[in-house]
Design a protein that fits this description.
The structure is a single chain. The protein is of the alpha/beta class and about 240 residues long. Helix content is about 55%, strand content about 10%. Strands 2-1-3-4-5 form a five-stranded parallel sheet, with helices on both faces. Helix 6 runs parallel beside helix 7 and helix 8 packs across helix 9.
Length: about 240
């Protein structure tokens, strides 16, 4: 009874309204503390993403798109920890109608040391760029006339010496949450930038993507299929 009278005296209708208000405040404080636990990680990720967009030259992305369109075969090279990133990226670009394959081990790479051609493009992920065996293989690709594009933390490296172009990935070393951040996210975002360039600059690639991917919405003015073709695609 004393608590109820107190609640009414300080402006509440009764105990229930007081309890509800107090619970809201407790939840808000708990949420604020919980968020602050990860604010440093969030800030580091924002720094990295801002850095990636700032150092990525649109002219280079345009040039890479043209290399990819001109290539008969595109290989995305990702070894060890970069294996799954290469596979995800390769699958994504096949939705644009490109011939793309992920190369994820040295045995397969060695096959192309003698089999690579001028019409081949090798997009290679190596953050350090200083793997000696990989650099030797890339040098052979270049000798065969193939184009090599390197995704790396370093502009100058053993692998960069054989690359036609190097696209930079921001380093995480100096950040507070360096051990927590998944570097693969930055590589995937860079591939998203390249992919976005296709969708905005290549009408053929856009139409192929819209017809291939179930979650893509095809604009009516872009849909040149007849009724039967639409039905077959839906099935």
């Amino acid at each position: 009874a004393s608590i109820i009278r107190f609640a009414q005296k300080v402006g509440y209708s009764g105990l229930n309204e007081l309890k509800y208000t107090m619970q809201k405040e407790l939840n808000k404080n708990s949420s604020s503390v919980h968020h602050s636990d990860y604010s440093s990680l969030l800030n580091d990720n924002k720094i990295l993403l801002d850095g990636l967009f700032n150092i990525t030259n649109p002219t280079d992305i345009n040039h890479l798109r043209k290399l990819m369109v001109q290539a008969d075969r595109i290989f995305i090279v990702g070894l060890n920890l970069n294996k799954h990133v290469a596979e995800i990226a390769a699958h994504k670009f096949t939705t644009l109608g490109l011939t793309v394959q992920a190369l994820t081990n040295y045995d397969t790479l060695k096959l192309y040391q003698s089999l690579s051609k001028e019409s081949d493009l090798f997009i290679t992920i190596s953050l350090s760029g200083n793997h000696k065996q990989l650099s030797t293989i890339l040098a052979d690709f270049k000798k065969n006339g193939s184009s090599v594009v390197l995704l790396s933390n370093y502009e100058q490296s053993l692998c960069a010496a054989s690359a036609n172009m190097t696209l930079m990935i921001p380093k995480t070393d100096l950040l507070h949450n360096s051990n927590t951040i998944s570097r693969e996210i930055l590589i995937l975002v860079l591939f998203d930038i390249i992919f976005h360039n296709f969708l905005t600059e290549d009408a053929k690639a856009l139409q192929t993507f819209q017809r291939t991917v179930s979650y893509s919405k095809l604009n009516k003015q872009d849909d040149t299929r007849d009724g039967l073709s639409r039905l077959i695609d839906l099935l």
